[in-house]
Amino acid sequence: MRILHTADWHLGRILHGMHLTDDQAHVLDQLCRVADEEKADAVLISGDVYDRAVPPPEAVELLDDVLARLVLDLGLAVIIIAGNHDSPRRLGFGSRLLAHGGLHVVGPCEAEPRPIVLRDEHGPVHFHALAYAEPAEVRSALADESIKDHDTAMAARLANIDLAPRPARNVLLAHVFAAGGAESESERPLSVGGSGTVSPARFNVFDYVALGHLHRPQTAGSEAVRYAGSLLKYSFSEAGHTKDVSIVDLDETGLAGVRHIALAPRRDLRIIRGEMAALLAAAPGDPGREDYLEIHLEDKQPIVDAMGRLRQAYPNALHLRRVALEAQASQFKPDARPMDEAEIFAAFFEQATGEAANGEQLKVFRDVLQSVRDARREAAR
User: Fold this and answer.
1) Backbone dihedral angles phi then psi of residue 178, each to the nearest 5 degrees
2) pLDDT, tens digit, 9 for 90 and up, residues 197-255
3) pTM
């Protein structure tokens, strides 16, 4: 059996004020094409289909279109679980009806989850789909007061799964933070401290584990336990990541291999740095000038409307950092001694520019200060 594993679509995402629906549609077109060309039998979506519990209409329309293409046009089985960004009950609406057409949606936590059984030439494959649930939800659903955190919640849920014996194969879908995984800034924390993590060792009994939540594609403990990663780069901490889908092959004994097929975004998400003049000069020859950019500006002197000037050259610049000034500010140590106006100005000038004010600059400040004082005295007469 050939499986396409994907996760963390976050449909409806907004990045620094930019709506990403068109970008998501662009890579989902590729995902449908990969599913067709690779002759996949099933598509697994391991949670965070939407970016928030009540998604915008355009996100719902996009999901409807993609699922229709996968299920109706390509005839694939699709299994979806809710993630921590989704509303389990909203996502799971109509799930019993949809299952008859090959679309299996698992939302709220179930006390006794039933496997979704698909077949290939080697026999049945049992898919055990565990949507994201808070420990308190699992404790209530299972009536088990020993559940205190995500790890004990997962252990209790797995204990309620009936694994199919050989020659059947068992695949798990889950949306969790496996201990030791590499995080990104775009993920919503599952809990405070380490209580949100789950031991990867709990998954060793499955032939393949299709995880969601962490946005970097990676394994968790073994080659058979994998995060597909997010559909797109959703934070500048992911600028160096490659986004892909996982093609998972199962043979009669279990996992036969995993391949990764990269997704090409409509616009990349990058970080560029330099001084204003150099960045503006380089823009016309930059093939990615319309990418989503975080710009690290290295000029030390004040620049009027820096972002406005940069957006004339890079229309999708989303975030600006004055890295030279940040470095200076981090080294600044407040002076607690009493200072007159000229000394305060000199200290501020050095913090902002990294250079000490010279005599001419201090004279200009004193002249301006004196003219302000004279104007106030004149106004008070």
Assistant:
1) -75, 130
2) 999 999 999 999 999 999 999 999 999 999 999 999 999 999 999 999 999 999 999 99
3) 0.85
In this structure, are residues 5 and 245 in contact, taking their beta carbons and an 8 Å threshold?
Answer: yes
pLDDT in tens, 120-153: 999 999 999 999 999 999 999 999 999 999 999 9
Type and span of the H or E element at 82:
none
Contacts of 188 (CB under 8 A, 6+ apart): 84, 85
Q: Are strands 77-81 and 14-15 parallel, antiparallel or unpaired?
A: unpaired
Handedness of CA 251, 80, 36, 4 (dihedral sign): negative
Contacts of 227 by beta carbon, 8 Å cutoff, 6+ apart: 7, 178, 181, 211, 212, 213, 214, 216, 217, 218, 219, 220
Reported in sequence order, the residue ranges of the chain that DSSP labels E, i.e. its strands, are 2-6, 14-15, 18-19, 42-46, 77-81, 103-106, 116-120, 123-130, 169-175, 177-178, 197-198, 208-212, 218-219, 225-227, 244-251, 254-262, 269-274, 292-297, 317-322
* Of residues 43, 96, 39, the one with CA closest to residue 68: 43
Strands 218-219 and 225-227: antiparallel
Q: Which of 253, 207, 251, 250 is nearest to 226 (CA)?
A: 207
CA–centroid distance for 246 within its chain: 17
271 beta partners:
294
18 backbone dihedrals φ, ψ, rounded to 5°: -100, 120
